[in-house]
């Protein structure tokens, strides 16, 4: 860790240049000959990235940052706070500590947290930052996490793991066995040290693929921010053999859209109908979950077509996703397109439709934007239709 970065003049310079173009700044003469200019610039880049993602770190004095890439890859405070809501008890060990954002929030719920990081430089940075953040109940271990688990000889309330993909697995199907640490291979060993394991994976991991590699999965959390899925959280409990619950959470500003269901339970198939007064589009977390029948039946909505994953009703309801009022439901024919959409402005979405948004825009000269939202989809009779709507929520 470069302690010279804590020089008050350097810290002030970093703060004064948040958001400044680094390429232009790099052309200037280094005003701090005692420090590496590239390292100072790297701090500016990383802290700029942390401004919205890690506001607590950004607002705390004398924080030292790793590379900008490390900041991009770390959990946001928003998702870290959600993870902390899952765990409870007296102890947790994080086998893949990284920049320590998750552990900061775990430490608000757990009495003793262990942060394991194999990179000694990053471990030193994190240990320094926890002191600046006034978090005394996290102990940092700079070593291989498997060696640390063995050496500590402790039974932990929770084990937390955020495996990363190995460099040699690029281009392959995303499987947990292709990550470090190899969770499926080490699962039995982990359960010797804890009865509860929480695993974070990227949204790229297919749920069925994850279930095929893991055992004792009690709950899968799908976490989205502003309708973008950020991570999957796999909650494993020793010897658990029951059903798996899917919990979806879309965090929008200060609210959370929640929808839960039991995976592979024989749920009722929704009714199908032609478009009614209102149109509902599930949020991205629900779309990732695959709970298309479950969300339709739970909210007593009709589905427009089996594969469209769009829902409709005559009466307005509060729904976890986007809601629209349907102004016109037209067949996708030349005559109707000329009247309603050709050379006009609209926001376009395709669902279960053969043409892309780009193709439709070009063909009918439709400009992007405006108040109207148009869904190009297929109805229950397999006819191509266009739903012209205004957005409610």
TrEMBL record:
Coiled-coil ranges (or none): none
PG-1098 ferredoxin-like domain segment(s): 278-320
Domain THUMP-like: 321-391
A Pfam family that the UniProt record links to this protein: Thump_like
Protein name: Uncharacterized protein
Organism of this sequence: Flavobacterium omnivorum
């Amino acid at each position: 860790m470069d302690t010279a970065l804590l020089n008050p003049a350097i810290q002030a310079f970093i703060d004064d240049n948040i958001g400044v173009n680094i390429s232009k700044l790099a052309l200037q003469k280094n005003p701090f000959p005692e420090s590496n200019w590239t390292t100072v610039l790297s701090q500016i880049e990383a802290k700029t990235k942390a401004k919205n993602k890690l506001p607590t770190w950004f607002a705390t004095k004398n924080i030292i940052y790793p590379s900008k890439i490390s900041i991009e890859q770390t959990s946001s405070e928003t998702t870290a706070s959600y993870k902390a809501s899952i765990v409870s008890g007296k102890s947790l060990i994080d086998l893949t500590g990284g920049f320590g954002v998750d552990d900061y929030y775990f430490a608000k719920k757990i009495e003793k947290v262990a942060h394991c990081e194999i990179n000694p430089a990053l471990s030193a940075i994190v240990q320094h930052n926890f002191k600046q953040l006034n978090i005394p109940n996290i102990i940092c271990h700079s070593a291989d996490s498997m060696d640390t688990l063995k050496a500590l000889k402790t039974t932990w309330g929770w084990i937390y793991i955020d495996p990363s993909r190995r460099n040699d697995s690029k281009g392959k199907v995303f499987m947990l066995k292709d990550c470090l640490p190899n969770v499926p291979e080490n699962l039995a060993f982990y359960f010797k040290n804890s009865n509860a394991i929480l695993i974070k994976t990227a949204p790229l991991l297919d749920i069925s693929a994850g279930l095929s590699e893991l055992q004792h999965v009690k709950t899968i959390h799908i976490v989205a921010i502003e309708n973008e899925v950020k991570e999957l959280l796999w909650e494993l409990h020793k010897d658990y053999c029951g059903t798996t619950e899917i919990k979806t959470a879309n965090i929008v500003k200060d609210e959370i859209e929640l929808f839960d269901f039991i995976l592979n339970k024989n749920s009722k198939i929704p009714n199908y109908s032609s478009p009614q007064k209102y149109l509902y589009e599930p949020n991205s977390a629900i779309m990732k979950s695959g709970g298309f029948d479950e969300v339709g039946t739970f909210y007593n909505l009709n589905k427009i077509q089996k594969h469209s994953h769009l829902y409709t009703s005559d009466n307005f309801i509060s729904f976890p996703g986007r809601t629209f009022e349907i102004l016109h439901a037209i067949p996708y024919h030349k005559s109707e397109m000329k009247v309603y959409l050709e050379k006009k402005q609209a926001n376009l979405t395709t669902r279960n439709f053969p043409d892309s948004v780009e193709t439709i825009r070009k063909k009918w000269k439709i400009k992007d934007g405006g108040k109207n939202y148009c869904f190009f989809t297929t109805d229950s009779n397999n006819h191509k239709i266009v739903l012209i709507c205004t957005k409610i929520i």
